[in-house]
Amino acid sequence: MEASETRTQVLPGNDGAWGAATLLSAVGIEKAYRRLGRRRKRAQVLAGAGIELYPGEVVGLVGENGSGKSTFMKVLVGALDADAGTVTTRGRIGYCPQEPLVYSRLTCDEHIELFGRAYGMPDADVRRSRNELYEGLNFARYAGVRVDRLSGGTLSKLNLALALLPDPDVLLLDEPYAGFDWDTYLRFWDLVEARRARGKSVLVVSHFVVDEHRFTRIVDVRDGRTWSR
Fold it and tell me: Which GO terms describe its molecular function (predicted)?
């Protein structure tokens, strides 16, 4: 999707407002799951959650285990249908899921080529972005290694690199630095800061925030709703 386009996902329930500078707007998001072994019983995970992301900010989305952070993220990216609410986005979206969605027999290079084609990127842009990400996350030596032979930390690097590959306008990251060593953790924040400085928007999901100064603001997911600190 080109940066000048707007994608709107309208779900039953509420009409969402669109701010002129907003890159992503979510209003009144609701989601419930059926409880195992209980007929017609549903567990309400999200009950009117919402968020707005603006150019040049890094937002932390925090909450306890089971609070609905990952569910909310999946609704924002379109990987999961909500029961009600509206999600509106502008520009290209990059998504780093908590569990990498990769192919065990493909190498890192092959994943980048595959995802580059899926993004519709010219070959030259794929090569340039690949080289920058290999250097930025320090895993170029694993370019030809199959995914099933990577360590957990290197797999997390690939997972993040695939989300960063097309230089998206909005970057949605679900526990992106799980398994990172300290050097990679700092490299991660260098990449995030470089994108923030160019007007990109980044949403980072985490159980808790350690370096709060790195974030523009923090949003808590609690009781199915979102609360700004």
Answer: ATP binding; ATP hydrolysis activity
